[in-house]
Structure formats: structure tokens, C-alpha cells
Design goal:
39% helix, 16% strand, single chain, globular, 5 helices, alpha/beta
């Protein structure tokens, strides 16, 4: 779905670090991305959000995301486990998932692509670099790519 469509795309960010969540939101704002941004703090919350369970049971409070930005290293259920479950669930597997993590481990890169991730990005160390990454993501995912609408 392109950015000129009638339905805005919700971005769901799964990251346990409050500072990283704040920086990601600021970087998205700085990159002029006006989409609805939602946050969850771990893989359990991510799956609850996507499956409309618990505090996310009201669909108005948990709109289906068009894209998920996923950290790998989170408590309770990490991003790898959540990714596997999402890609094994027919109703969820088409949601594009972009890993945005501090991990540079080759095993994480290979494993997440094997599990069906769409992109793997190592978190930039500076805010300006993060803004640049978000600008590229905005251009690619919201202006170029067609996202399957469910």
C-alpha cells in the first residue's frame, strides 16, 4: 500500500529499551514520517498486540500494523521467538518485519532471514544516522513497496 492510499499504515515498534523507543519515535518524526506509531516492550506484548489479547483486545487500541520494527534482544520472549511465531501464523505472516537491533552476529542475520524477516538493520550509533535510516525506510516501505492490506 502506497503512502497516497486512504488508509494510513501503522508502524509497530517492539523494543524493550525506553530510550531506544524514544529515539526511534523522534527519528521517525524527524524523517517526516507521519504514520501512526505504536510500541510494545517485548515479544509477549508483540504477540498479544497482533492477536488482540489482554490489554490489546480492543482493535481500536491495536490497529493492525503495516510494518513491524523488531528488536531481537528483549525479555520474556525475544525477537527471534516472536518472529518465528508471527511467520508461522497464517493471518500474520504477510506483515513485513524489519529487524532493528544492536546485534551484528552473523548467526542472527542468517537465522532471522531463515525465519522470514524482510530486512535486517544494525541500529546506528548516532541519532543522525538513525534519522537517515528512518528516511530510507520511509521512502522504501511507504513510497515504493506495495504492502499487502488485510
Amino acid at each position: 500500500m502506497k503512502s497516497n492510499s486512504k488508509r494510513p499504515i501503522t508502524i509497530l515498534i517492539a523494543d524493550d529499551d525506553p530510550e531506544d523507543r524514544m529515539l526511534a519515535a523522534e527519528a521517525l518524526k524527524e524523517s517526516r514520517l507521519a504514520n501512526d506509531i505504536r510500541f510494545v516492550e517485548d515479544g509477549e506484548e508483540l504477540l498479544d498486540y497482533l492477536m488482540l489479547r489482554g490489554r490489546f483486545s480492543n482493535p481500536d487500541d491495536a490497529p493492525r500494523p503495516g510494518v513491524i520494527l523488531l528488536d531481537l534482544n528483549m525479555p520474556r520472549k525475544d525477537g527471534r521467538e516472536a518472529l518465528r511465531e508471527i511467520k508461522e501464523t497464517p493471518d500474520l505472516r504477510r506483515i513485513p518485519i524489519i529487524v532493528l537491533t544492536t546485534s551484528k552476529a552473523e548467526i542472527d542475520i542468517y537465522r532471522t532471514y531463515d525465519l522470514g524477516v524482510n530486512s535486517f538493520i544494525v541500529k546506528p550509533v548516532t541519532f543522525d544516522s538513525l534519522v537517515e535510516v528512518m528516511q530510507i525506510l520511509r521512502k522504501y516501505w511507504f513510497e515504493i513497496v506495495e504492502i499487502a492490506a488485510d
